Amino acid sequence: MSRATADRATLWLRPRRWVGSWLLCGAAVLQTLALGGCASAATEPEAASAAMRDESSRYIVLAVDNPLSSPGGRAGASLGSYGAAPRYVLGSRAAATLAALAREHGLRETAGWPIVSLGWHCVVFELPAGAERGQVLAALQADPRVRLAQPLQEFDTQGATGPGAPPPPALPPSTSPTNSPGTPAATPTSPGAPTERVPYNDPYVDLQRSFLDMGAAQAHRISTGAGVRIAVVDTGAALNHPDLRGRILATRDLVGEPAARFEGDKHGTEVAGVIAAVGNNGEGIVGIAPQAGLEVFKACWGRHATGGAESPARCNSFTLAKALAGVLESNARIVNLSLGGPSDPLLEKLLGELLRQGRVIIGALPPDGRRGGFPTGVEGVLAVGVAGELQSPADASVIAAPGRDVLTLQPGTGYDYASGSSIAAAHVSAVAALLLAADPRLDRLALSTLLQGASQGRVLDAGAALRTLSTRLATSRRS
């Protein structure tokens, strides 16, 4: 990525206040100021977003039909797509419906955004003081004008943190690399993998047990993920990390935090490193799909440590819905969701639309290993658990991947170990990219079959998955 391109990428991480103000004020004009004008939702977007994060129980999410909407700037894009005036239009019918609902129930709009592919306009409403959320939702859900009404819910990234998590292995200082440039990587240990060594000059590659155990180096003889885009819906990520140069192709901050905080986010950096850390650059580690492109949608924010434990990053229905609406308008074939929480009607509707478009959605199992809630409870989502820790290893629908003490990237220029099903999901997203790069015609079901066949309760074998695909392609060409 050139310096100029990197500067533009950083620029577009900054909150675009005028975009939000235009949308909300435009809605207010159409609503004849029935919602109290643009008020704090337009002039204080950071304050409104912070209030939703701190007191989610005071808010609900509501959607109405917006038949007069027209596609505008892509909801999740960055760089140049927000350079022109927004063309999204909140139709008068939708505006009037929202105004009436707000007036009848004493609601105050704090944010609004389109889901163009569904023909909806979604709004986050703050409840009036003393209102019981369940009662308000029941009334709205029974209203024929309302397409969807639900609580504003919370979700967490799926890491392995807290006092019970075992300490990771010690990492040698970067000034004393374990592999000098030009030294071959260790032989992969995956079952049936060839014994030839594959050269990588990345100094920490011998410490990447997951890379070796999955036979990734052998898989790279067939595919490195080139040309495949993966949407990472997570926290922000370290755009300027030396092992991510050129790998992050687009970004969007749906939380509205300062750009520096996006760069300093840990969880998204760890996930991005597992997937696409640059190979053979003499720096750090190698990603499982080192030539895949990433689109980072920041929908989660970091939280302060409590009781000596590192808290997982948190997201909510609002930030995740905006991110998924953005993914719907993106070119990403794969969607990595290293997070989870309760069932959520709006988010499940958006996942259904992504699946209908043929996207491959990878979700991290919750700590209890059960396929419930969002996203792994949604039919069609590929659920991923940590190899060796699955509660039900006989469940062939769950893909087992490395997720314990995996060496990956840290904000700035650092490297460290990370654990959890978040990391396991990142491995599977990367292997999916290898397969799609080798055969772009693969659909979701064929890809799922290859991934599950190369896992079968053990650690996912990337080399075996690519060899199986290569054999099928060769057979198809001969027939």
UniProtKB/TrEMBL annotation:
Gene3D superfamilies: Peptidase S8/S53 domain. InterPro entries: Peptidase_S8/S53_dom, Peptidase_S8/S53_dom_sf, Peptidase_S8_His-AS, Peptidase_S8_subtilisin-like, Peptidase_S8_subtilisin-rel. Residues 156-200 are annotated as: Disordered. The active site is at 234 (charge relay system), 267 (charge relay system), 422 (charge relay system). The keyword Transferase does not apply. Residues 225-452 form the Peptidase S8/S53 domain. It comes from the Bacteria. Residues 164-175 have a biased composition (Pro residues). Residues 176-195 have a biased composition (Low complexity). Pfam families: Peptidase_S8. Keywords: Hydrolase, Protease, Serine protease. Belongs to the peptidase S8 family. PANTHER family: CEREVISIN-RELATED (PTHR43806:SF11), PEPTIDASE S8 (PTHR43806). This is S8 family serine peptidase. It comes from Ideonella lacteola.
